[in-house]
Structure formats: structure tokens, C-alpha cells
Amino acid sequence: MIPGGRRRVYELLELAAPGDHASRACDIFIITLICANVVALILDSVEAIHQAAPLAFTIFEGASVGIFTIEYILRVWSYVEDPRYSHPVRGRMRLVLSPIQLLDLLAILPYLLLLVGLDLRVLRVVRLLARAARLSRYFSGLRTLGNVIHAKRYELFMVTIVLGVLLVLASSLMYFAEREVQPEEYSSIPATMWWTIVTLTTVGYGDVFPVTSAGRLLAGVIAVLGIGIFALPAGILGSGFLEEVQQRQSEPKTCPHCGLEIAD
Amino acid sequence: MIPGGRRRVYELLELAAPGDHASRACDIFIITLICANVVALILDSVEAIHQAAPLAFTIFEGASVGIFTIEYILRVWSYVEDPRYSHPVRGRMRLVLSPIQLLDLLAILPYLLLLVGLDLRVLRVVRLLARAARLSRYFSGLRTLGNVIHAKRYELFMVTIVLGVLLVLASSLMYFAEREVQPEEYSSIPATMWWTIVTLTTVGYGDVFPVTSAGRLLAGVIAVLGIGIFALPAGILGSGFLEEVQQRQSEPKTCPHCGLEIAD
Amino acid sequence: MIPGGRRRVYELLELAAPGDHASRACDIFIITLICANVVALILDSVEAIHQAAPLAFTIFEGASVGIFTIEYILRVWSYVEDPRYSHPVRGRMRLVLSPIQLLDLLAILPYLLLLVGLDLRVLRVVRLLARAARLSRYFSGLRTLGNVIHAKRYELFMVTIVLGVLLVLASSLMYFAEREVQPEEYSSIPATMWWTIVTLTTVGYGDVFPVTSAGRLLAGVIAVLGIGIFALPAGILGSGFLEEVQQRQSEPKTCPHCGLEIAD
Amino acid sequence: MIPGGRRRVYELLELAAPGDHASRACDIFIITLICANVVALILDSVEAIHQAAPLAFTIFEGASVGIFTIEYILRVWSYVEDPRYSHPVRGRMRLVLSPIQLLDLLAILPYLLLLVGLDLRVLRVVRLLARAARLSRYFSGLRTLGNVIHAKRYELFMVTIVLGVLLVLASSLMYFAEREVQPEEYSSIPATMWWTIVTLTTVGYGDVFPVTSAGRLLAGVIAVLGIGIFALPAGILGSGFLEEVQQRQSEPKTCPHCGLEIAD
User: Fold this and answer.
1) Whole-number Cα distances in Å, B240 to B144, B146, B151, C107
2) Which of A111, C71, D64, D151 could pair with A65 as two cysteines, CB 3.0-4.6 Å apart?
3) If we measure between CA atoms, which residue out of B173, B15, B34, B149 comes closest to residue B82?
């Protein structure tokens, strides 16, 4: 194969350059195939649909994995055209070990293992995740969201810490308050954590709830603290989005008096 | 009919100009009639009220549709006075096909079809929607809200995408975690989606909830992520409202030194 | 009585001036009495406590109303010292008809009517409300909160409108989707509104929930819209609090070059 | 013992200075021991785990308390090296009575009392709290969160006041609306408060809910007000986080015209 052919394959697999219609068609085909696989996995779980056409899903899945395998091999072969992976051996190693490429491998490996006898059906979900992650490469808009979350990752991590401490503390106190009266539901601190998380997030299924006065008093305090658990990330992300907007707006200005640039 | 008469009809149907009391009375009459129709549809659904006066609602509905039909015809006839729709044929076509006018047609069509024998009772709700949409023309204040949501539509759309991916992923994982123990409630991935949406939005009816340890662990993570699903739009809209306010405030200023205008 | 005595009564009843210890003691006594009345009304509703000391509550209530009546009369008598109500007749009329004074009358009237034979027990709650409103006069800090809500009242009102339209629309659609299968729970549109409000606010008791596929799909959309119903006021109030802070910070500045004031 | 030895003990117990590896190891050992104690208390509550190794937990707990006691004594002995507590008697008194040191005492005292015959098992939870509080000293990042909450403590306190008034008022009204039909669930105002807090926080377990029309109307209003209860702290904290960020950014600037510093 000539290097020009390898270059073309690389261009087709990469995000399409403006005007490159063939590459764009290639992108759309892969997106559609990924989406169709997600839909197939969802529909296949419905008993009635699965029994109406049991073979159809198996064949579609096999064909998809075949295409994804070919895509994977072509990518490893052609990506030496990318300056980042230009070395034939070390470049390819780095590509294969990059997170997105490992996810792609995860998306085809379970099926390939199935062919050699290993049944890892639960891995279909992992494959689903791998597929979804692959799609994000086509949604540049998710980057704004990701930027804000990334800029505020430290504050959000601290909220998680606070949530964790609250979870342990509330569960321990609740366990001591309710275990006498409801030994089934509040059988241990880890079991009580189920109640705590359902209350702190204000989901409140109603499968477990306190019945003693002490427990209800405690639950009231915990539920009110749950409001804070909502308010903190809302406040953090709110300020994050605003900073993101302000950063985009703040370009260097020039003073109208002397024409020199003023740092904001 | 003289053109002056057509112009007057146009003025009466349009939002009233300041001081035009007749046109204002016309606006208020239409608003009241729309509200009364909404109230009638609600009350008519109550068995006791419906049986107390079954004819009253039918007569009121017929009369209202009659008035709305006359209004519709008058509008099509008179709106050539509006510069946007001035052409007798093409202007009227554009008016008839404009979204708000199509909604108006939807609001009278089901009843007219009923007269010729087609029973589309479910369309009464669509009519209700059409009526409500009509009212928004009188609430200029909704525009601020709409502006903010419109300015942030891209970020909000991204949140919907994230919600969608979470929905599919969480439902798939939960389905594999709980289907053995609760085959009724978690019968398929689409069925599990009901649980997921009820949990992610923190509604938590309690008709379906996980009972296995793995399922509860997973549900805890999903419920906590649900907090983020609330925090993201709250943060996005928060920054949106602030920008809206700042935009309104930022008028051109003059430099206190030399009296020249400074762009903000 | 000498005018000086009337002036002193006025000072005692008004919020204490700094250093006026007697007036301060008077304030604290009234606050304590109001709080004690609220606590008494709450405790009196507990059967066991009521039966342990049935007379105690009646006596305490009677004594409190007596004090409040004396306070009311003294206020009407002495407030002509206040420049706003200085006219003996017209000033007093204005005082008696002012909202806070009417609330005070509401707080004593039901008991006085009880003495002449009218039993308006449900008015005890109104009295509770009147009492609580009276306390707000001592909490100057609530004013910041009130300012922000007041500054954003228009946007918040618009959210209420949107909530109202959503409520009517969602209830109508849900009624048509579920009434066949659950004629008890979804018996009419007003009855369905109970389900809608419980879902839109994400409370989700679980006493009513959809069981049909169409109903669940619709409920999912409504629950997701419920997130927006939370996000809108959070965003509005967030920007309100920020503006409040910025307004307090923005005082006139002087230019360091020429000493002239610069409007921000 | 020589003063140099006491100084070294002080350095080991304090947060490690950069490069002091022995002190850092000491920090990590204490953190690990605290975490292990929390995990042990949680696991010990699980019946199966407790019975599998009943002695292991007792021994581990005893050993931990032993180490914490030694740490406590060493701290009291060596902290005279700290300038704040340099006085042998008064400095040590101040150290012993400082909040963090009292918490440390609380963490070991219950066990020591157990040795002399007093069984205060419920205090194990308090000990857990004391342990968790101790960890916060190692998480400097929690300070940002704490700063924002501290800066906005007044507004947040006002929200709590509003929540309290709403709680009392809603419970009283609901009690009068539902007590006839559901005398069990709405037996008194304090009992009704359980329903109110579950509704205002939008948890909604579904163990108690109104069934009368008046009660449901009232509950709808209360649930909608519950949205505000979420929106207020979210808005307050949102503006708080933004101010925190702006404060960190605002450093003194120099005027581009004359090079002099301008206060922002």
C-alpha cells in the first residue's frame, strides 16, 4: 500500500476537515452505527422484541463488532500519519494505550472473547459505556460543560467529601436511633446508609423511613441538610458558568486616551 | 366594505395601541374567553359537574368555537393591512402558515371536524395547548424568561444530552443488577428507565426501588448524580439571568477626563 | 395623664432606642410572650399534654390575650406621639387601619368573640400567623431576603405563571393518558393536578403514579421539566443576591488623578 | 528528658513541615488510624461481621484508644513548645480547653470510662464525630467551602428562620385540615411537622400525605414554597462563591497613565 493511501485512511477516520465529504460521511456512518448499537442493546432487553427476532440482534451485533474491529485495526495502522504517534512502534504503543483507544478495545474485546468460549454478557454494558464515550468526540459543545466542571473540580470534590462525612455520621446516628424499633430496616450502619442517601438526595422512595420521635427529629435535620447538598454544587457551578462567560468576554482593551492597551 | 373598516378590524384584533379603548376591550374579551374555555375543559372533566349541567358545557364550547372561527376569518381577511402580510394572496398564505395562526386553526378545527362526524376528543387537550400559547402574546414579561432560556439553549441542550446518556447507562446497569431479583419491575431496559428517571429527578414515588446490595450501591451513585442534574441548569440559568441584567445596565459611558464616550 | 407619660408609653412600645433599657425589656417581654403563645398552641394540640393540664393553656391564653389587648389599646392611645399618626382622630384611624395593626387586632379578636359566645377555633391558626408576622418587625435581617425577593418579584411571578400553565397542561394530558386504567386516582383534571404538583415539585409521595407506558413517558417529561421549575427561581434569586451585594459595594469613587468623582 | 526531645515530639504531632518525612509519616499514621476506626465502627454494626470476629474489633478498638491516649498525653506535654501555649500551667490549661483538644478527649474518654464500669455505648457515635472533626485539620481545601458558608452565615440563618416559620405555620394549618379524616397521622401539630418537613424538603416518603381536598390544596402550596426553600440557599451560596473568586482575583492595579496604584 502506498503512503498516500494510508494518509487517506487516516483522514477518513479522523474528524472530517471542512469540505472533505467522504470523511464526513465516514464520521456520520460511525456515529449512526454506535447509536444503532445502543438502541439494539436496549431493545434486545425487551423479551417480546428479543423473541420476535432473536437472530437479527445477534447478526447485527456481530456485523457491528466486525466493522468496529476493522476500524480499530485501520486506526492502529494509519495513525502513524498523526505527528503525535509518528513512530512506527513507540507511536503505535502510545496510541493503543491512550484512554480512548483502550475504550475502543473494550468495545470489541468482549465479543471476540465470546467467540473463543468466554461468556461475559455483563460486559455488554461496559461496551455500551465505551460506545457512548466514543460519541463525545463528536460533541464539541460538551466541552464548555466539561470546562466548568473541570475548573470547579476541587470545590465539587470537597462537596463530595462533606457528603461522605454526612453520610457516615447520619447513618451512624440513625442506626442507633431506629435499630430497636425497626431491626429489619436499620439492621446495620451500611444498611442504614441506603436510607441516608435516599433522604439526603431527597429521593425518598418510602421503603424505609423513621418511626420513632428521635429518628424523625434526626431525619428532619438530615433532610434540611440535604437542601444544602443541593445548594452547594448549584452555587459552585453557577459561579463557574459565570466565570467561563466573563473569561470569554475579557479581551485586551485599549485606553481611549492614549491608545495603549489596558489589562482588565 | 371600505378599506377603512378593514383597517379598524385589524386594529381591534391586534394588541391595543395606547388609548384605543375599543381595541383594549377586544383584547380583554378574547383573553377572558380563552381562560374561560380552559376552566370549562377542567371543570367538564369532573363527573359531578359534568352531570349537573351537561348541556351548558357543550353550548359554551360551541359558542366559543364560533367566536374563535369568526375571529380567525376576520384575521385572515384584515391582516393585509399589516405590512408583513400586505400581499392579498401571498401575504395571506404566509399568515395562515405562520405558527401562531396554525395553532389558532388547531384550536377550532377539532370541533369543526366533530360537526362532520369525526370524534377527536383527545384533540381537546391540543386545543387547550393552542389556547394557552395564544395567551402568551399578551404576557410581554415572559420574554425575559424566554430570552435567558434562549441565550442558554445550547448549554441546556448539552445538559439534556448528558441526562440522556446517564439515563441509558444507569438503566442498563440497573437492569443487569436487579432483573434476577425483581423480574417484574426491572423486566427490560426501557422498563428500568422509568425507575431511572424517577430517581435522577429525585421524585422517588417508591413504586420501584432496588433491593439488592449492588442495586442499592448503584442507585446511591445515580441519586447523587441526580443532584448534579439539578445543579447544572440552576447554575446555567443563574449566570444567564445575571448576564441579562448586566446587558441591560451597560449603556455607553463618557470618560470623566475628556468627555468622550467609552465603550464598556 | 400628662403628655410626658403618653410619650414614655409610646417609647416603650416602639422598638427600643439604644440605651433605653426599660423599652428594650418591654420589647423582649412581648417577643417572649408571642413565642410562648406559639409554643402553647403547638403543645396544646398534643392530646396527652392537653389533658395533663387543660386549664393551664386556657388560663395562659386568656392572660396573653389580656396583655395583647392592653398593648393594643395603649398603642392606639399613645401613637399620636408618632409624627405619622399625630392627628388625634385621622392619625388614629390611619394607625388602626394599617396592615400591622389590623393583624394585631386579628390576634386578639377571635378570643374576644369567644367570650361573647362565637366559637372560631379555626381562627387560632390565623392568630398564630398574626403573631408570627408581628415578630418580623424585630428581625431587621429578613429585610435583605425580602429585598432580593422584591427586586425579582416580576421574574418570580413569571415562573409562577409558567408553573401554572405547566400544571394545567400536564394534568390534562395525564388525565387522558391514565383515566382508563386508574379511574379512581385520575378521576378528573382537578384530581390529576394533585399528581402533577407532587411530581413537578419532585416530592413524589407515591400515592398516585402512572402505570401505562404513555403515562410514564409523559410523567418522565414532566419530572424533567420539574428540574427547570427548580432551576429557574434558583437562578433568578442567585442573580438577585449578587446584584444586592454589588449595589452595596458600588459607592461613588474619586479618580486618583484629578480628584473628581467617577460614576461607576 | 531534654528540651530538644520535647521539641521533636511537638514537631512530629504538628502538621508536617515540608521535607520533615518522619513528621509526615506520623500524620499519615494518625489519619489512617482514624479512618480505620470509622470503618471498624461501621463494619462492627453488621451482625455477620461482628460475629465472625467479635474479639478483633474489641482489640483493635482498645489498641486505637491506647494510641490516641498516648498521643493526647504527649500533646499536652509537648505543646508548651508552641508559642500560643508556652506557659507550663496556663498554656496547658488553654490547650486542654481548646475545642479540638476537648473533641480529642471525647474520643478517648468513653472507652476509658467503660474500663471503670460505665457503659456509654451510644457515645461511640460521638467518638466517631470527634474522629471525623480531627480529620478536617488535614483538609485545607474545606476552608474555601467553609469561608463561603461563613461569609453568608447571616443570610443562611435567615433562610432557617423562614423555614422555621413556614414549618410551624404549615403544620398548624395542615393539622386543622386533616385531623378529622386522618386522626392517626395528623394527631397533633408536632406530629404534623414530620409531614411538613418531609414535604418542604421534597423528600416525600409517602408514609403520610393529605387526602382531603383542602389538605391537598394546602400541600400543593407548601410543596411549591419548598422550591423556594431550595432556591434561596442555592442563590445565596452561588453569589457567595462568585464573590470569593472575585476577591481572590482583585489585586491592586496600577494606572496605565501615571503608573500609580489604583484601589479597586
Assistant:
1) 11, 11, 7, 44
2) A111
3) B15
Name the percent of chain C lying above pLDDT 90: 11
What distances in angstroms separate CA D237 from CA A117, C120, C129, D149, D154, one per listed residue? 56, 44, 29, 7, 12
Bridge-based pairing of strands B261-262 and A253-254 is: unpaired
**Contact with chain D for residue B3, Cβ under 8 A:** no
Max CA-CA distance within chain D? 80
Minimal CA separation from D226 to chain B, in Å: 14
pLDDT digits (tens, 9 = 90+) for C205-250: 999 999 999 899 999 999 998 888 888 888 888 888 888 877 777 6
Q: Which helix (H) or strand (E) holds B262?
A: strand B261-262
- pLDDT of A154: 85
Instruction: Specify whether the CB–CB gap between C82 and C10 falls below 8 A.
Output: yes
Q: Which residues of chain A have pLDDT under 50?
A: 1, 119, 263-264
Is residue A194 within 8 Å of A167, Cβ to Cβ?
no
Taking only the tens place, the pLDDT of each residue in C161-214 is: 888 888 988 898 888 888 889 998 899 889 999 999 999 999 999 999 999 998
Tell whether D52 is within 8 A of chain A (Cβ): no
A254: contact with D, CB 8 A cutoff: no
Contacts 24+ apart (CB under 8 A), B26-33: B27/B138, B30/B71, B31/B135, B31/B138, B33/B64, B33/B67, B33/B68
State the first-to-last Cα distance of chain C, in angstroms, to the nearest integer: 56
Q: What is the ipTM of this complex?
A: 0.81
Cβ density class D59-81: b for 16+ within 10 Å, e for less: ebbeebbeebbebbeebeebbbb
Supply φ then ψ for residue D129, to 5 degrees. -60, -45
Q: Does C132 touch chain D (CB under 8 A)?
A: yes
Mean pLDDT of chain B: 81
DSSP string covering B226-261: HHHHHHHHHHHHHHHHHHHHHHHH---EE-TTT--E
Cβ–Cβ contact D129 with C under 8 A:
no
In D, which residues are within 8 Å of B206 by CB distance?
A: 205-206
Length of chain D as a residue count: 264
DSSP chain D: --HHHHHHHHHHHSPPPTT-HHHHHHHHHHHHHHHHHHHHHHHHTSHHHHHHSHHHHHHHHHHHHHHHHHHHHHHHHHGGGSGGG-STTHHHHHHHTSHHHHHHHHHHHHHHHHHTT---TTHHHHHHHHHHHHHGGG-TTHHHHHHHHHHTHHHHHHHHHHHHHHHHHHHHHHHHHHTTT-TTTTSSHHHHHHHHHHHHTT---SSS---SHHHHHHHHHHHHHHHHHHHHHHHHHHHHHHHHHHHHH---EE-TTT--EE--
CA distance C170 to chain B (A): 10
Helix, strand or coil, per DSSP, at residue C254: strand
**What is the helix (H) or strand (E) element at residue B131, kind and residue range?**
helix B123-135
CA–CA separation, A24 and C83 (whole Å): 80
For C17, which DSSP code?
A: P
Q: Residue A10: what residue type?
A: Y
User: Which residue reads 474522629 in cell numbers?
Assistant: D131
A116 grid coordinates? 473463543
Task: Provide the 8-state DSSP code for A260.
Answer: -
Alpha helices in chain A (DSSP H): 3-13, 21-44, 47-52, 54-78, 90-96, 99-115, 123-135, 142-151, 153-178, 189-200, 213-249
On chain C, the residues whose CB falls within 8 A of the CB of A199 are: none
C-beta separation of D245 from D238 below 8 A: no
Give yes or no for residue C29 having a pLDDT over 50.
yes
